[in-house]
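INFO batch 0412 | record 1 of 1 | parsing
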Amino acid sequence: MPNSSGGISGSCVSCAAGWAGVIRDIRRKIEGQPALEEAFALPLGRASQIRSQQQRQRGWKLYSFHAPEVECIGKGKASAPYEFGVKASIVTNNRRAPGGLFVLHASSLPENPYDGHTLRNVIDRTETLTGCPIERAYVDKGYRGHDAQNPRRVFISGQKRGVFGVIKRELRRRSAIEPIIGHMKTEGHLGRCYLKGRAGDAANVILSAVGHNFRRILAWLRELLCLFLVRLCRVLAGPAPLNSPS
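INFO prediction complete | emitting tokens
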């Protein structure tokens, strides 16, 4: 167990030196063997990248040996300033629905793009998928400086200008998407993807959204079945009809 005298840094230095020796030893043993050099080129390159990259360096960094597509996403929160994974976009309806809030569009956003630069594409795909034009869109503060085709129909959380009446009430409901994302992470395996590569990340987001919609449909059918059974029990338990006098 490391103590306050610098045991952590000493162990890190020895670990880095040990991995450097392992990499050099593997390269020395496979030298002059084209088949082995080709087979070990990718893993040795990744190991060298992880060993040589610095914490504060700019540009692309490798965070996972087995999943090089993993990215560092800044959250801006004190409890969780960073998350490691792939950014995803989730669209849901704003108005309350009898069956709950459904996911209208879901997609992965590789290469960690700025949120505002993805809004136009997300709105267009959602309108194409649903077949209905989006009257108003409500987003969080990460979408400042967005590239939406009609910026007047996009409202950002905390916005004061042009917010009144129905728009003000609907803007307060923007946070209703947070529980949906939480359910998708815990119940729909959106929090951790077990599929490989960027194609697996894209498929995992879509499947998590489909699973959430199916759970909403099953919950609505469950409530409908309960109402039907209650009505049926009341009918069967009703008083028996009286016999007519002869």
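INFO post-check: Helices lie at 7-29, 34-52, 119-130, 166-172, 177-186, 197-236.
INFO record closed
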